[in-house]
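Hi there,

I know you've been waiting on this one. I reran it after we fixed the sequence typo, so this is the corrected version. Both the input and the resulting structure follow.
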Amino acid sequence: MKSQVFTALESELGIALPTSEGMHTLACVQAAEVGNIDFALLLGGNLFSANPDTGFSERALSNIPFKVMINSTLNQTHLNGVAGENLVLPIRVRDEEQQPTTQESMFNFVRMSDGGFDRIPALLSEVEIITAIAEQLIPQATLDFSQFRKHRNIRYVIGRVIPGFEDFAHIDDSKREFHIKGRHLDSPLFNTPSRRARFTVPEITNWRKRQRQAPAAGSDLEFILTSVRSEGQFNTIIYSEEDVYRNQQDRHVLFMHPKDIALLNLEEGALVDVVNATGAMEKLRVARYGIRPGNVMTYFPEANVLIPQDTDHRSKTPGFKSVSVQIRTQQPSS
């Protein structure tokens, strides 16, 4: 948490937040693998499918003896890494909320809805579940969490502590939707000392691996794998096997440049295995695609079986877009 937000949150709520160092998502899962996590409250999402190194992900989650998952949709986390006790708490989706909700668009524009229809009356909202838990764990004298049962009170605090969200504090009364301040740029001036944009290359980037070189004797040619989403999915949730964007009817595909297909003496439609030290994807169908030679592409999250646990030290993000792999031709069965 940035120091500005940390200080504003303490001041607004009149509380003292912990200052001990926390863990990012992957560090938590790595701690779980070695048995250092006793309980996990998973607030939405699909943690199993969001992790790199699929085998590691399943082992780690199974090592957590008690997990509570709050979700609106069943996903792979409910089926993998589920050793021990698991509770799945279903919630209302956004258009079933009984109070107004707000959403931030991909263009940094905040919109407000009026609430939805009461499809399943017994279902609670995510806010109601989290607030009910917090009320029982946090003394009221420390922080009265019951106030956050009302969405407008949550929005008010966000507007008071998060830079750029000042209009959020009064949106329930004003009904004015807005662009988040500082993100909507209509001129090439940026919030840096020089007012110019700054680009940073991750320090672990290995440019040598991006240069096409003949393999050493007895070794396989290496490619750089990037994983992507299809048109038929939202984050880790796959709604359709079809990918309209790339004209594919299924997801068992390895996209390659025509020159690389020829280099490996393959034909479009051939079946190949993609392997590295982390794992393997088997029987992917080769498809011609306008990708840079030396690079290949397949779908996320299936490709996580090939993604190692290495991360960029600043963002703590694994290399979902840049992993060394080798391609091996499927041998016909005799």
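Quick highlight: Residues 207-329 form a domain with the Barwin-like endoglucanases fold (CATH 2.40.40.20).

Best,
R. S.
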